[in-house]
Amino acid sequence: MKPTIEQELLGVRDKTHANEAFVQSTMEAIREQNTQQAFKKAIGNNRARRANRLNLLQRLRQLPATILIILAVLFTVSLGGGVYAAVRYLPALVRITHTSTITHDTKQYWVPAFSQCSSQGTQRFDVSQSAQLSENAVQRLIEARCETDTIDKFVSQIWPTYGTHKVWKSGDIIYYAQADVIGSLQSVSASSVTVNESSSGTSSNTFHVVPNTELTAYADGVKVPLHSLNKNSTVFVIMRVSQKYVRPNSNQEFIINPTPSEIGVIGLIKLSQPLKYYGSMQNDLTELPPCLNNPGEFCPSTAQIDVFPAGSEGAQNPDLSQPSSNQTKIISGQVTQLGASTLTLKATSGKDYTVATPTNALAAYNGTYAPIHGNTATLQIGSWVQVIYSQSPHTNSQTVTANQIQQIALLITGDIKDGQVTQYQP
After folding, report:
1. Tens digit of each residue's pLDDT (9 = 90 or more) over 228-242
2. Would you say residue 57 has pLDDT above 50?
3. Domains annotated on the chain, with CATH
4. What is the pLDDT of residue 398?
5. Distance of alpha carbon 421 from alpha carbon 373, whole angstroms
6. Is the pLDDT of residue 67 over 60?
7. For residue range 331-387, what is the model confidence (pLDDT) as tens digits?
8. Full-model pTM
9. What's the pLDDT at 379?
10. Can you give the chain as a three-state secondary structure string?
11. How far is residue 110's CA from residue 108's CA, in Å, rounded to a whole number?
12. How far is it, in rounded angstroms, from Cα 8 to Cα 236?
């Protein structure tokens, strides 16, 4: 039986370190991915997705995360014998330096300082001119995206993860903090917080504070009084979440119960922009981070649909067979030639990459899975795809063979609505 990702993650940890340190770092990475997914979508839908986003060790898809972000410098200072974590915000550095027109409908914005926000080193953004965004609006969207990235790191500093025992034992309850909802603050007291989760103000929800816990607030990385938060301030609501830890034996450690439980609110973090800049407007902004291990290439960071392998979560290429010394590489581009088993894509550099799959895998996708989306997700000439593959670090071959393929995905924009998708086009 194939091990779960939880078992794989925990199986490779350094056994000489405390287990809570390893799981803490794993949870921080997962929280970051969860927050990024929430941030990418319209604020009005956040509550409907909260149960999915809260899973502590949920299965992670091998997709390059769209980074949600804030330029910040983390530092610690000693205060009264304790350690105080703070974030110093530097939004003035996240500035558009120049723009260029890529196509009749796409404008590209260069923001070199954003690479300090992004774990992927992003410095470029594409914006559709049909979105009719002013340069000021684009600047605000970029600052908002940069701002949100540091939330998870900041949250883990201020509200650390802990368990029933210092060294976790089977049956212990693990408690962690989750940056759960972005909203417009309506009211706050020592016992509850009410926010509107949509820019229209039509989605109001009240969250109760964890019993016997002081609700704390932060702005610009500094602790502030609750009464200093004005009505309609944009805030991140920080929830305390619990999950059961189970250790089946001495060689396996993983959380077996996939369903976490919200206990209540423990904090608020004030954000710098109006709520609308954290919501669906973010779909108009496409990051262009460097492609992993493909120097000089850029891979649009968008929503995706699996083309191959397809059909189930965790599906794998049965023909994949590569030495462990190989490295994972990613390339994206527009399909210029397409067959039942092969495609050619033109990357952002202008180079052509030829990609082969097991017999008729591309035709199988178009015949079986594309119709699920009313054929709006049909792979065709002109589609944009992302290819993840294994290759020697000592070669930059533009030919990808069937036994090197890890994943091919179709790039789309925004959310799937009524089963229909819009394919990504720069």
Report:
1. 999 999 999 999 999
2. no
3. 1-289 (no CATH), 293-423 (2.40.50)
4. 96
5. 7
6. no
7. 999 999 999 999 999 999 999 999 999 889 999 999 999 998 888 999 999 999 999
8. 0.68
9. 97
10. CCCCHHHHHHHCCCCCCCHHHHHHHHHHHHHHHHHHHHHHCCHHHHHHHHHHHCCCCCCCCCCCCCCCCCCEEEEEEEECCEEEEEEEECHHHCCCCEEEEEECCEEEEECHHHHHCCCCCCCEEEEEHHHCCCHHHHHHHHHHHHHHHCHHHHHHHHCCCEECCCCCCCCCEEEEEEEEEEEEEEEECCCEEEEECCCCCCCEEEEEECCCCCCEEEECCEEECHHHCCCCCEEEEEEEEEEECEEEECCEEECCCCCCEEEEEEEEEECCCCHHHHCHHHHHEEECCECCCCCCCECCECEEEEEECCCCCCCCCCCCCCCCCCEEEEEEEEEEEECCCEEEEEECCCCEEEEECCCCHHHHHHHHHHHHHCCCCCCCCCCEEEEEEEECCCCCCCEECCCCEEEEEEEEEEEEECCEEEECCC
11. 7
12. 32
Tokens 């979440």 belong to 241
Mean pLDDT of the chain: 76
What's the Cα-to-Cα distance from 352 to each of 103, 267, 333, 399, rounded to whole Å? 20, 50, 9, 9
pLDDT digits (tens, 9 = 90+) for 332-347: 999 999 999 999 999 9
